[in-house]
């Protein structure tokens, strides 16, 4: 059984203000929940329709009916389990190596995919502007496929942070230098912009290294690259000589 | 006004069998519809809530109320317009240059993003296995952002096609050769696999060139790359020396 109060609390966690008020978030599906359990995330409570998760104390889990899972799930087709976790304290920024900075990226699927790419390419730090979508949004947690446990994410005043960093700052722009012909350093901050508007003017002014992913084809009519696929191509270029 | 029969027809086009039966599909939003109109797609009928699309004959368009648009739209938040188009005849396969082959890619967002990437990188031909999601699925049409008009897509018996081609065939596998250290040809077929299972056994057997996108980081725990972001990285590698 899931009580009415529990349903109310868990569904409220789909909204950022209630996540902040309660300092809780939730994840769905065996794989993601297991990765969170194995990392330093503190379990509040696990709801599962199966006799699984043997390592979780009985006091911390409830066996529930599929119909109850539907009531608390954020998915159209609920998985077999949902777990509520405490939002951990933000860790200090790892101000070295390759860092991805997100300037108002709004789509949960995009930031989820970007965290997964960072995980793949060994990027340990993502810095987000305050307007970037919250990583504890259930859709982000889902899209990261567990990478949320391995990439450090901080929300900062991005223009301020970037104006003070000693690392070289890169951004992609239509008129930037061909990324394939640029010497890319091992340590840098790479700024990825908003889905509709790209990199904001304030950040553009302080971004000294302007890159561009060349567009091919006779017509060159392709609109643009999605911010997540562009991040993949850029990370691949920064890392390819180290492989 | 949209008649009950029109609502029934248009909503039925969300399903492949009715798209095939009627040889119709629909697109939503000014940008995508305009790109389809400017290309060789034959308009069946346009439904719009605005006084726009001046070039479309009055007999081919209806000014409708937002509430009616909601009834025919496949989107949670409908745009301002929806247009029904005839499904064009399949054009012959362009059997040269760089070709992307999709081996049972199922997610509409993924194939949409892949077509957008092909458009960006000047790839003119995509070959799909019969089980790959239909490109006239409304979610695919939406995700391509107009690229559907510039990339030729054919559905074929993929194992048969690949076993007969004279082009070199590449695929990505966990144990493949480091893609960053491989000489990649200008002309090739690159196979991208299913989201859950990767490239099928039948196709794997006839794929002579095994590539791998190296994984970085100390732990190397990242699960996998999404098929669309992997396609972006691979296309970038095949094209980077030509930019």
UniProtKB/TrEMBL annotation, chains A, B:
Gene3D superfamilies: 3.30.1330.30, 3.40.1280.10. GO terms for molecular function: RNA binding; RNA methyltransferase activity. Signal peptide: none annotated. One of its GO terms (biological process) is RNA processing. The keyword Methyltransferase applies. Residues 98-235 form the tRNA/rRNA methyltransferase SpoU type domain. It comes from the Bacteria. Residues 5-83 form the MRM3-like substrate binding domain. InterPro entries: Alpha/beta_knot_MTases, MRM3-like_sub_bind, Ribosomal_eL30-like_sf, rRNA_Methyltransferase, SpoU_MeTrfase, tRNA_m1G_MTases_N. Keywords: Methyltransferase, Transferase. Belongs to the class IV-like SAM-binding methyltransferase superfamily. RNA methyltransferase TrmH family. This is RNA methyltransferase. The lineage of its organism: Bacteria, Pseudomonadati, Bacteroidota, Flavobacteriia, Flavobacteriales.
């Amino acid at each position: 059984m899931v009580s009415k109060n529990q349903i109310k609390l868990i569904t409220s966690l789909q909204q950022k203000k209630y996540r902040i008020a309660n300092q809780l978030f939730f994840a769905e599906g065996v794989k993601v929940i297991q990765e969170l359990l194995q990392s330093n995330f503190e379990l509040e409570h696990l709801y599962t329709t199966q006799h699984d998760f043997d390592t979780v104390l009985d006091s911390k889990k409830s066996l529930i009916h599929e119909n109850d899972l539907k009531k608390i799930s954020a998915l159209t087709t609920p998985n077999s389990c949902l777990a509520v976790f405490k939002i951990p304290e933000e860790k200090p920024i790892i101000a070295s190596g390759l860092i991805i900075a997100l300037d108002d990226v709004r789509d949960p699927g995009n930031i989820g995919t970007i965290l997964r790419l960072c995980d793949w390419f060994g990027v340990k730090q993502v810095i987000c502007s305050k307007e970037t979508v919250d990583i504890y949004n259930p859709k982000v947690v889902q899209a990261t496929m567990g990478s949320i446990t391995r990439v450090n994410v901080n929300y900062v005043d991005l223009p301020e942070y970037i104006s003070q960093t000693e690392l070289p700052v890169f951004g992609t722009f239509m008129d930037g230098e061909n990324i394939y012909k640029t010497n890319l350093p091992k340590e840098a901050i790479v700024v990825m912009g908003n889905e509709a508007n790209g990199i904001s003017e304030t950040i553009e002014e302080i971004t000294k290294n302007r890159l561009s992913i060349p567009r091919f084809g006779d017509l060159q009519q392709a609109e643009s690259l999605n911010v997540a696929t562009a991040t993949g191509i850029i990370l691949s270029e920064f890392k390819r000589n180290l492989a």
